[in-house]
User: What shape does this take?
Amino acid sequence: MKKLLIIFTCSLLVVMPCFAEQITLLAVKHSETSKNQLELEYILSAETGYKLFILPNPYRLVVDFESTTLSENIQLSIEHSSYIKDVRTARRGLNDLRLVIDFKEGVKPKLDNTQSAFTDNSHLHMHITIESGVNDSSGTDDLIIPTPSVLSESNVTEINSNPVINEKVQNTLLSDWEFSGKLSFEELGFFHQGLSPQQHNNYVSGAIEPEIYREWDGGKQSFTFIPFFRYSQHDSRRTHFDIRELNWLLSEDDWELRVGFRKVFWGVAEGEHLVDIINQTDLIENTDTEDKFGQPMVNLALIGEWGTLDLFVLPGFRERSFPGPEGRLRTLPQVSVGDAQFERHGFKKHMAYAARWSQVLGDWDIGLSHFYGTSREPVFKAQLSPTGQVSLIPYYDLINQTGLDIQLTYEDWIVKHEGIVRSGQGNTFYAMTTGIEYTLFDLFSSGLDLGLVVEYMFDTRSGKVSYSPSGGNIRFAPFQDDILTALRFGFNDVQSTEILAGVMFDRTNNAKFYNIEASRRIGDNFKVNFEMRLFSGIPVTDPSYLLRKDDRIRLEVSYYF
Assistant: This one.
């Protein structure tokens, strides 16, 4: 199996540098006449395949471009249009671009596909007749830029470049819903035998994460359902089911209301996500703490020129997941999940509250948050069983946490900072991650973007493992005086090849953690993710000493449908 992994990995890295032309949508021009005629001209960097269709109630024109991205330098101007209300875009699958033109109320368009064709290998011309609606066009010729949005595929009738469009769109139950998702296969291999004889060197698993989506009421309301299931070889705890998303959204101009299971991410740092506290970490999925369980919530967002204020009521506490007896990357002694203890019980255990204000001020993105409730991060108590076995019991305190995240984007530079102050887990402590990222775009005219990342992590809790003065609880604080350096490669090819390679080292004891992440699309529906994580020079006093035998490689092949 190791040989197979090495051969596959080498093959992946060999093909990664292969560049391909990236097609870009540069502009969309429109012109109107007094005879209810609308001319559209899509300007791209090169000719590409496309599909187009019209959706009713309300009417909108949809064009799907294959292997296309959106230019960052276009400007929007539709103030003088008699027929067009808005323009939106959405990603389709892994590499396609969907552009949607919303027509004004009362406008009924008819597409003449016999006049839809590319000219000069890059200009797509489209002729539309307005059968009813406003017809007092000023005959202007304006530049349109699509702005990002989410599009439902309700009432879709698709056509290719040459057929005649079906004017009688059938409304069926299934046509109002959008079905998509991901099916993945994972190979997790370890270079060394684990500390426990129960552990294995190879784990195979598969996961499915479908998504069901619908929007209605002119896009003001939507429903999302994303269940998740993984079956894992050997580790029974890693075989699990979760509801990542199950929520209803009501959106108005100056407020939004979301009710149900959701995942909410806060933060800007690469190495450690300190301010991200709403959702519980799904630790058995990956140790990078980026996989989260769905959290039941009521979220009201108030939106104004002064920024966005998100208010959260969070019922239902979810415990952190840990590997089972045969699983890898687990502590020794093992965490006894079923015996978790809590500072508060009943209503106070299950209820949490949070608020976050965010605003964009020029080049600055600012977020200020506060959380009150049962901590998502447990401390541990050592417990001796009647049979003489030692286990770690998770203990969840009631905490207050105030967080600040700031990002400055200036030309090729990004400056990031996350900081928190938390009380409730022993002495009040402060932790922060701050750093910079500089990107060299189109290096040597090769199309390669090279990003240089440096971050510093600091924590005022003394020692890598500290103890609460009240109860002797073990608290892990792994990043107290650590530096992360990394290189980010973006190849800007059609396959969206990316590589992130870095090392995190402890300034106090010189322990090092090496990490390589790479991803690449294969065709229209497949994607390969590769990870390699290695430990070096870990002293006995460091909590990661428990993982000294867990150098590993992870390969995931995903199919997007």
